[in-house]
Specification:
Layout: H1 7-11, E1 17-20, E2 23-26, E3 30-38, E4 44-52, E5 58-65, E6 68-76, E7 81-85, E8 88-89, H2 96-108, E9 114-121, E10 132-138, E11 153-160, H3 161-170, H4 176-187
Parallel strand pairs: 5-10
Antiparallel strand pairs: 1-3, 2-3, 3-4, 5-6, 5-8, 6-7, 6-11, 9-10
Protein backbone atom coordinates (compact mmCIF):
# COMPACT_ATOMS: atom_id res chain seq x y z
CA UNK A 1 0.00 0.00 0.00
CA UNK A 2 1.70 3.22 -1.13
CA UNK A 3 1.29 6.24 1.11
CA UNK A 4 3.13 9.55 1.15
CA UNK A 5 2.10 10.33 4.72
CA UNK A 6 -0.44 12.76 6.05
CA UNK A 7 -0.23 16.37 4.82
CA UNK A 8 0.87 17.78 8.20
CA UNK A 9 3.75 15.31 8.34
CA UNK A 10 4.79 15.81 4.72
CA UNK A 11 5.10 19.59 5.16
CA UNK A 12 7.36 19.48 8.22
CA UNK A 13 11.07 19.66 7.27
CA UNK A 14 11.99 16.97 9.84
CA UNK A 15 9.26 14.56 8.72
CA UNK A 16 10.00 10.91 8.14
CA UNK A 17 7.91 10.14 5.04
CA UNK A 18 6.15 6.77 4.85
CA UNK A 19 6.40 5.23 1.37
CA UNK A 20 4.68 1.94 2.20
CA UNK A 21 2.68 0.83 5.23
CA UNK A 22 3.56 -2.78 6.08
CA UNK A 23 1.41 -4.68 8.57
CA UNK A 24 3.82 -7.16 10.20
CA UNK A 25 1.61 -8.63 12.95
CA UNK A 26 -1.88 -8.30 14.38
CA UNK A 27 -3.68 -9.63 17.45
CA UNK A 28 -6.92 -8.61 19.15
CA UNK A 29 -5.22 -5.65 20.91
CA UNK A 30 -2.68 -4.13 18.49
CA UNK A 31 -1.45 -3.88 14.91
CA UNK A 32 2.34 -3.87 14.50
CA UNK A 33 3.74 -2.16 11.41
CA UNK A 34 7.25 -2.23 9.95
CA UNK A 35 6.76 0.65 7.51
CA UNK A 36 9.07 1.55 4.67
CA UNK A 37 10.10 5.21 5.00
CA UNK A 38 12.38 7.91 3.65
CA UNK A 39 14.25 9.98 6.23
CA UNK A 40 14.70 13.78 5.82
CA UNK A 41 18.18 13.18 4.36
CA UNK A 42 16.62 11.09 1.58
CA UNK A 43 17.91 7.81 3.01
CA UNK A 44 15.43 4.93 2.80
CA UNK A 45 14.74 2.77 5.85
CA UNK A 46 12.07 1.22 8.01
CA UNK A 47 10.18 2.41 11.08
CA UNK A 48 8.36 0.24 13.60
CA UNK A 49 4.95 1.43 14.80
CA UNK A 50 2.34 -0.14 17.11
CA UNK A 51 -1.28 1.01 16.93
CA UNK A 52 -4.04 -0.04 19.34
CA UNK A 53 -6.95 -1.71 17.58
CA UNK A 54 -9.74 -0.45 19.83
CA UNK A 55 -11.61 2.77 19.25
CA UNK A 56 -11.06 5.39 21.90
CA UNK A 57 -8.26 5.99 24.32
CA UNK A 58 -6.64 3.65 26.78
CA UNK A 59 -6.53 5.06 30.31
CA UNK A 60 -4.33 5.45 33.35
CA UNK A 61 -6.40 5.93 36.50
CA UNK A 62 -5.20 7.96 39.48
CA UNK A 63 -7.31 6.54 42.35
CA UNK A 64 -7.39 8.98 45.29
CA UNK A 65 -8.90 8.26 48.70
CA UNK A 66 -8.21 10.93 51.31
CA UNK A 67 -4.44 11.42 51.27
CA UNK A 68 -3.69 8.02 49.68
CA UNK A 69 -3.14 6.82 46.11
CA UNK A 70 -4.21 3.34 44.93
CA UNK A 71 -1.60 1.17 43.21
CA UNK A 72 -1.65 -2.28 41.63
CA UNK A 73 1.16 -4.82 41.33
CA UNK A 74 1.18 -6.50 37.93
CA UNK A 75 3.63 -8.91 36.33
CA UNK A 76 5.00 -7.09 33.27
CA UNK A 77 5.93 -9.78 30.78
CA UNK A 78 8.18 -7.56 28.58
CA UNK A 79 10.25 -6.64 31.68
CA UNK A 80 10.21 -10.14 33.13
CA UNK A 81 9.23 -8.86 36.58
CA UNK A 82 6.34 -7.47 38.62
CA UNK A 83 5.84 -3.74 38.70
CA UNK A 84 3.82 -1.36 40.89
CA UNK A 85 1.75 1.14 38.93
CA UNK A 86 -1.51 3.02 38.73
CA UNK A 87 -4.36 0.94 37.28
CA UNK A 88 -4.61 1.17 33.51
CA UNK A 89 -6.03 -0.54 30.48
CA UNK A 90 -6.97 -0.58 26.84
CA UNK A 91 -10.06 1.25 25.64
CA UNK A 92 -13.50 -0.16 26.38
CA UNK A 93 -15.13 2.25 23.92
CA UNK A 94 -14.98 5.90 22.94
CA UNK A 95 -15.61 7.30 26.46
CA UNK A 96 -12.40 7.28 28.56
CA UNK A 97 -14.43 7.73 31.75
CA UNK A 98 -16.30 4.48 31.04
CA UNK A 99 -12.97 2.74 30.43
CA UNK A 100 -11.62 4.20 33.69
CA UNK A 101 -14.68 2.96 35.62
CA UNK A 102 -14.28 -0.57 34.18
CA UNK A 103 -10.53 -0.75 34.82
CA UNK A 104 -10.82 0.63 38.38
CA UNK A 105 -13.38 -2.07 39.17
CA UNK A 106 -11.33 -4.85 37.51
CA UNK A 107 -7.96 -3.90 38.99
CA UNK A 108 -8.75 -2.44 42.43
CA UNK A 109 -12.19 -3.93 43.03
CA UNK A 110 -13.68 -0.44 43.45
CA UNK A 111 -17.17 -0.42 41.88
CA UNK A 112 -17.62 3.35 41.67
CA UNK A 113 -15.87 6.70 42.07
CA UNK A 114 -16.09 10.29 40.92
CA UNK A 115 -14.10 10.52 37.68
CA UNK A 116 -12.32 13.56 36.18
CA UNK A 117 -10.37 13.63 32.92
CA UNK A 118 -7.03 15.36 33.62
CA UNK A 119 -5.60 15.21 30.10
CA UNK A 120 -3.80 12.88 27.72
CA UNK A 121 -0.25 11.73 27.12
CA UNK A 122 1.71 9.74 24.54
CA UNK A 123 3.21 6.79 26.46
CA UNK A 124 6.01 5.96 23.98
CA UNK A 125 5.83 8.21 20.94
CA UNK A 126 8.90 6.54 19.42
CA UNK A 127 6.98 3.27 19.03
CA UNK A 128 3.29 3.63 19.91
CA UNK A 129 0.81 5.52 17.74
CA UNK A 130 -1.45 6.18 20.72
CA UNK A 131 -2.67 8.69 23.23
CA UNK A 132 -3.74 7.60 26.70
CA UNK A 133 -6.23 9.47 28.88
CA UNK A 134 -5.26 10.26 32.46
CA UNK A 135 -8.29 10.06 34.73
CA UNK A 136 -8.45 10.95 38.43
CA UNK A 137 -10.89 8.80 40.42
CA UNK A 138 -12.03 10.15 43.78
CA UNK A 139 -12.75 6.92 45.61
CA UNK A 140 -15.25 6.94 48.52
CA UNK A 141 -13.76 3.83 50.18
CA UNK A 142 -10.77 1.54 49.71
CA UNK A 143 -12.84 -1.58 50.41
CA UNK A 144 -13.39 -3.86 48.65
CA UNK A 145 -9.89 -3.77 47.29
CA UNK A 146 -9.61 -7.27 45.88
CA UNK A 147 -8.89 -7.21 42.15
CA UNK A 148 -11.42 -8.90 39.88
CA UNK A 149 -8.58 -9.90 37.53
CA UNK A 150 -6.22 -12.02 39.73
CA UNK A 151 -4.21 -13.23 36.72
CA UNK A 152 -3.43 -9.60 35.92
CA UNK A 153 -3.22 -7.87 39.32
CA UNK A 154 -1.42 -9.78 42.07
CA UNK A 155 -1.62 -7.18 44.86
CA UNK A 156 -3.06 -3.76 45.62
CA UNK A 157 -1.90 -1.04 47.97
CA UNK A 158 -3.01 2.44 49.09
CA UNK A 159 0.01 4.67 49.74
CA UNK A 160 0.10 8.05 51.49
CA UNK A 161 1.64 10.67 49.20
CA UNK A 162 4.96 11.00 51.15
CA UNK A 163 5.47 7.24 50.88
CA UNK A 164 4.58 7.35 47.18
CA UNK A 165 7.26 10.02 46.53
CA UNK A 166 9.74 7.83 48.48
CA UNK A 167 8.89 4.86 46.27
CA UNK A 168 9.56 7.00 43.18
CA UNK A 169 12.85 8.37 44.55
CA UNK A 170 14.13 4.89 45.43
CA UNK A 171 13.02 3.24 42.16
CA UNK A 172 10.35 1.03 43.77
CA UNK A 173 7.85 2.78 41.48
CA UNK A 174 9.31 3.12 37.99
CA UNK A 175 6.38 2.67 35.58
CA UNK A 176 6.55 5.42 32.96
CA UNK A 177 2.80 5.86 32.52
CA UNK A 178 2.37 6.14 36.29
CA UNK A 179 5.15 8.74 36.52
CA UNK A 180 3.60 10.74 33.65
CA UNK A 181 0.11 10.61 35.22
CA UNK A 182 1.45 11.75 38.60
CA UNK A 183 3.38 14.58 36.93
CA UNK A 184 0.26 15.84 35.14
CA UNK A 185 -1.81 15.55 38.34
CA UNK A 186 0.87 17.45 40.30
CA UNK A 187 1.08 20.16 37.63
CA UNK A 188 -2.68 20.68 37.87
CA UNK A 189 -2.59 20.47 41.71
CA UNK A 190 -4.90 17.42 41.75
CA UNK A 191 -2.94 15.37 44.27
CA UNK A 192 -3.94 15.22 47.96
Amino acid sequence: MADTGTPEHAEHPDAVRRTREVLAYRNRFVDVYDDEVVFPSGTPGTYLKIRHRDEGLGVVILPVHGDTIGLVRTYRYPLGRPQWALPRGFSHGTDPLLTARTELHEELGIPDAEFHLLGTMTPDSGLLAAEVAIVRALVPTTTPSSPLAPDEVTETRWLPLPELWHWIATGALDDGMTLAALTLAQAHRHLP
